[in-house]
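Worked problem 6 (solution included).
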Amino acid sequence: MAGKVLIDPYVVINGTNLTNYTKAVTLPLEREDLDATTAGSGGAREHAKGLESGTISFTFLDSFGTGEVDAVLYAAFKADGAVSFEVRADSDAVGTSNPKWTGNLQVTQYNMGGEVGQLAQKELEFPTTGPTVRATS
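Solution. The predicted structure is:
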């Protein structure tokens, strides 16, 4: 079975392309598991899907110039509203073999720093807000 090796994931946050700083991105989504059991369920639990929620996690190599990782994320952290995101497994064109996921996220955390002698990195996780959409065009 062939798999996909992530070599060049595409990441845009609030309209700024942060692909060149991205080491990792994950976007787990889930739906609430609602108990739909009734007296007529034959003695077994029944389930229904509830609301969708998700988080999006990034590892970025830090960079402090205008329009770079630190400036983009700090501005989004200080802003009151959500910001848009788009992620893809590859920076190639969107298509059936390279879908895109888009939505909005809340930048609820920010950090700066690192270890002496090591590359400065940010490892952050943000909640998505509203629907996340997967598209192939």
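Discussion: The mean pLDDT is 96.
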